[in-house]
Amino acid sequence: EHLKAKAIHVEYPIEYIKPNGQTATGWIDALVETDKGYIIVDHKSNPQSRAEWNDVALKYSGQLALYKEAVEAVADKPVIGCWIHFAVTGGVLAILF
Asked: Residue 49: phi, psi to the nearest 5?
């Protein structure tokens, strides 16, 4: 299925105060808006082999979960996907929550 992106926001800034009062700030590398919701893409430039992608994804899953929580706190649509883009080795891996 095609994403049918309505908009792609690059280097999208976030500032989010979590329910526990902790403030989180950051930049979403790419926030893709579709009719069904948003997709968060996080670029990684390390030259990890495909065999190591799952380990890398696990390392960054907390960051993506925070971005998802922040977007959903203010958006009118859900985050329907979080992906890590391995720019050097040329692939993407979906993170499932």
From this structure: -75, 160
Task: Give the amino acid at 55.
Answer: D
Tokens of 74: 């203010």
Give the CA radius of gyration of the chain: 14
52-91: pLDDT as tens digits: 888 888 888 999 999 999 999 999 999 999 999 988 888 8
Strand partners, 41: 30, 83
CA-nearest of 97, 96, 75, 95 to 9 is: 75
The amino acid at 84: I
CA gap 32, 90 in Å, rounded: 19
Helix (H) or strand (E) holding 49: none
